[in-house]
Amino acid sequence: MTDPIRVLLADDQALVRGALAAMLGLEPDIEIVAQVGAGDEVGPAAARTKPDVALLDVQMPGIDGLAAAALLHEQLPSCRVVVLTTFGRPGYLARAMRAGAAGFVVKDSPPEQLVEAVRRVHAGLRVVDPALAAESLSQGISPLTERERDVLVAAADGATVADIARRLHLSEGTVRNHLSSAIGKTDARTRAEAVRIADGNGWL
Asked: Can you tell me the distance from the alpha carbon of 104 to that of 130, in angstroms, rounded to the nearest whole number?
């Protein structure tokens, strides 16, 4: 008998995390070796338990699941990552693939689909929700530069230009230029609307 697939679960909602662990734990070829509730706990837990597959939620405290995926890809390349999210946003898919994820599954997928995703990525394959893949292709990649994205993320809580400049160590003029460019690229009228549009597309 082959060794079970060692799985790390990361989701900030304890009930969701527990339900996923219970469901996957019923499979004879899958073993849950770690459960964490924050993105910055993923790296240490993976270093301790050496999982074969990590299931990472996108939105978590600490660092988000996409940043955690990139960290795992760098520090533990043998661990295959499946990004699991409530939000089926095309931009998330593109960012997940850039972060080295091998799979992207939305949480309302049938349970057997998630189980099969774990097995397939462990076997070296890629698994992507087909509807989301089609939408991502039709929409194209994010038009925002990395710095424009940083500025919009910093502006999301209503921060002033001066606040954003201090946070990102930029001049106020540079921040205004990036905000103006981001507003234009998202066809928004205000920076708040640009944040909403970019976040809705998974670009932030």
From this structure: 10
d(CA 73, CA 96): 11
Instruction: Provide the strand spans (E) within 37-136.
Output: 53-57, 80-85, 103-106, 127-128
* Residue 17 amino acid letter: R
What does the block give as tokens for 60? 């978590």
Strand partners, 112: none
pTM for the model? 0.66
Residue 70: HSE in the Cβ half-sphere, 13 Å Cα cutoff? 11
Sequence length of the chain is: 204
pLDDT digits (tens, 9 = 90+) for 19-43: 999 999 999 999 999 999 999 999 9
Interval 66-88: pLDDT, tens: 899 999 989 999 999 998 877 66
